[in-house]
């Protein structure tokens, strides 16, 4: 018989969230810790991770390890993961949340450097970290990997072409990696829509309100509103879900 409390309980588990010091990553870190997991908070800025870790430990009582990592640097990901295992001896949940979408004037003005940088952070890094963590999880008997992709993967716009291409690639990689590491390791994706994180503070409020009026829910999402889906995919509640790309976008057209 399905027991909701037991299914979503992450007590004794270790979860790693890249881009975990702010925005959606920070919300998911807190949700995982409140569900009982010890957490690794990773981003490029160690100071931000340290501050987030102190707050998580204070508020939840769980262990939070701050770590600096650049997910776009292939050669640094294995030593990074080694440190996680040295500290905890295991990893049960990986959420590939780190991402970037720099502004550019026109598509023809995009440099090779910018294009490569966007694909490295949004696609190459999550692929490599999933490959490394997935192999270790499979050897240990199981785990769950969640890739945070974007509605732009399905509805690309001229202003986010490299980002949309990278996220579409990550959607495809999610399905392939689910087959690579099944049956013990599950790999899924959340295709996220527009959320009101710290980045949204620079938006034109009136222009966004007009755009959001076309959403089924008529608004952008709050960061905490991604947490339920993340916990579902991270936990035993989704034991028969793998290779799935779940849309969480408030009904974006």
Automatic annotation (TrEMBL):
Known EC number: 1.1.1.47
GO MF entries: glucose 1-dehydrogenase [NAD(P)+] activity
InterPro entries named in the record: KR_dom, NAD(P)-bd_dom_sf, SDR_fam
Gene3D superfamilies named in the record: NAD(P)-binding Rossmann-like Domain
SMART domains for this protein: PKS_KR
Superkingdom in the source lineage: Bacteria
Domain Ketoreductase residue range list: 13-199
EC top class, as a word: oxidoreductase
Translocase among keywords: no
Record keywords, A-Z: Oxidoreductase
Family: Belongs to the short-chain dehydrogenases/reductases (SDR) family.
PANTHER family per UniProt: OXIDOREDUCTASE, SHORT-CHAIN DEHYDROGENASE/REDUCTASE FAMILY (AFU_ORTHOLOGUE AFUA_5G02870), SHORT-CHAIN DEHYDROGENASE_REDUCTASE FAMILY PROTEIN
Protein name: Glucose 1-dehydrogenase
């Amino acid at each position: 018989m399905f027991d909701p409390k037991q299914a979503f309980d992450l007590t004794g588990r270790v979860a790693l969230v890249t881009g975990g010091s702010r925005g959606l990553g920070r919300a998911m870190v807190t949700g995982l810790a409140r569900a009982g997991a010890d957490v690794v908070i990773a981003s490029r800025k160690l100071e931000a991770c340290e501050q987030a870790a102190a707050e998580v430990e204070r508020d939840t009582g769980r262990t939070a390890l701050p770590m600096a990592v650049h997910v776009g640097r292939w050669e640094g990901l294995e030593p990074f993961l080694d440190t996680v295992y040295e500290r905890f001896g295991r990893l049960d949940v990986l959420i590939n949340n780190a991402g970037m979408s720099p502004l550019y004037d026109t598509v023809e003005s995009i440099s090779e450097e910018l294009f490569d940088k966007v694909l490295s952070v949004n696609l190459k890094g999550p692929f490599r970290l999933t490959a490394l963590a997935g192999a270790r999880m499979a050897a240990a008997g199981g785990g769950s990997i969640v890739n945070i992709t974007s509605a732009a993967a399905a509805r690309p716009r001229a202003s986010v072409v490299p980002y949309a291409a990278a996220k579409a690639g990550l959607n495809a990689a999610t399905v392939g990696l689910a087959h690579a590491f099944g049956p013990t390791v599950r790999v899924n994706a959340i295709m996220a829509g527009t959320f009101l994180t710290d980045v949204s503070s620079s938006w034109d409020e009136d222009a966004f309100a007009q755009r959001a009026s076309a959403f089924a829910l008529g608004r952008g999402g709050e960061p905490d509103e991604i947490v339920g889906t993340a916990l579902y995919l991270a936990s035993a509640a989704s034991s028969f879900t793998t290779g799935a790309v779940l849309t969480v976008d408030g009904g974006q057209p």
